[in-house]
Amino acid sequence: MTVWGKTASENYHRRATGMLRGFYRRLATDVPAEPGTVLVDVGTGPGMLLHHLAGSGAELHGVDPSPDMVAIARRVADDAGLAERLTFAAGSAEDLPFPDASVDVLVSSLSLHHWADVARAATEARRVLRPGGRLLAYDFRFVRMDRALAAMRAEFDQVSRTRVRLLYARLEAR
Ligand SMILES: C[S@@+](CC[C@H](N)C(=O)[O-])C[C@H]1O[C@@H](n2cnc3c(N)ncnc32)[C@H](O)[C@@H]1O
């Protein structure tokens, strides 16, 4: 797995997350986050999607394999007064730092195309999700999702890919 370093992480935060504000806003209306929901953003980067979910009352966690991204996510949450609402930890789609059957929603934005081992990610998603829980992975529409869809179908009963706006697609597994 290639881990994003400090410069790449800071550049992503400075250049991309502002432009993606509308995308996060749209996702926040699509993601089932209610009081009591335990939600984990996989490959959270600077954690901006979680900022858009902060008012939901859900328990919100972000994980990322890059320690530099985790540091940025904590700093940005702190600056926004959200340090008490959001937790961030090192972790990857293939290795989630959560106990079995402890998560209601796994969400991911623009990260799926970085996952090195989608079969392991699917097994890991199945492990941490509670019965009835679901995974929602959003990525660019041009990203090939065949391998991820096949891997998810090996673990979940219902797997689908749908278009979101012009540019994005959503992989859902439950
Ligand atoms: C393009 S950024 C997206 C960040 C954020 N989700 C967003 O929408 O702004 C991709 C992120 O995926 C993370 N990533 C890379 N490999 C990963 C993996 N195997 N599992 C989870 N996240 C991964 C990177 O560290 C990076 O933070």
TrEMBL record:
Transmembrane segments: none annotated. The keyword Methyltransferase applies. InterPro entries: Diverse_substrate_MTase, Methyltransf_11, SAM-dependent_MTases_sf. One of its GO terms (biological process) is methylation. Its EC number is 2.1.1.-. The keyword Ligase does not apply. GO terms for molecular function: methyltransferase activity. Keywords: Methyltransferase, Transferase. Pfam families: Methyltransf_11. Residues 40-136 form the Methyltransferase type domain. SUPFAM superfamilies: S-adenosyl-L-methionine-dependent methyltransferases (SSF53335). CDD domains: AdoMet_MTases. Belongs to the methyltransferase superfamily. This is Class I SAM-dependent methyltransferase.
